[in-house]
Amino acid sequence: MQARLDFLSNPVSAQAVKHIATAGRALTDSTLSATTQELVALRASQINGCGFCVDIHTKEATHAGETQVRLHLVATWREASVFTDAERAALELAEEGTRIADAAGGVSDEVWANAAKHYDEDQLAALVAVIAVINAFNRMNVLTQRPAGEYQVGQFG
Fold first, then answer.
1. How far apart are CA 20 and CA 97, in angstroms?
2. Residue 2: what are its φ and ψ, rounded to 5°?
3. Mean pLDDT across the stretch 62-80?
């Protein structure tokens, strides 16, 4: 399988990717744990059907120490006992933030309040940014049919 467009080598899309990636890198300095960031990115990527990003975030999460059991259960986190209440709140926020078009009114006050019980303002800001950035990357990869399976941990720095 070959991507419709190599947006990393096209000068127009490469510039856009550079700026989106810079936004994503800023999150590494946040107090939101790397594990939570990877779980959120993985869940949004699953929802959006982005195989390339699922490949990236399962490998990066594993490299960060995440267990295979938890990674396998992200898609069914509501029925899994392996996630903390805080992680559940982050995953629920990721789902509603990713499925904005499915909910008349976007993210519910209830979901936001639940996340706010577990995360401070800076961590909430990081969660919002992770959700926005991964959704942007998901859309670019899905639109161009970027194939999955070849990603190497740390490949994009």
1. 18
2. -125, 140
3. 96
Tokens of 10: 């096209």
Domain, as residue range, for 89: 31-144
Selection from 138, 155, 142, 150 nearest residue 5 by Cα? 142
CATH number of domain containing 108? 1.20.1290.10
Q: For the beta carbon of residue 1, count every other beta carbon within 10 angstroms.
A: 8
Q: How confident is the model at residue 110 (pLDDT cuts 50, 70, 90)?
A: very high
Distances (CA, A) of 106 to 34, 110, 112: 26, 11, 11
pLDDT tens column, 73-98: 999 999 999 999 999 999 999 999 99
Domain annotation covers residue 149: no
Tokens of 5: 């467009």
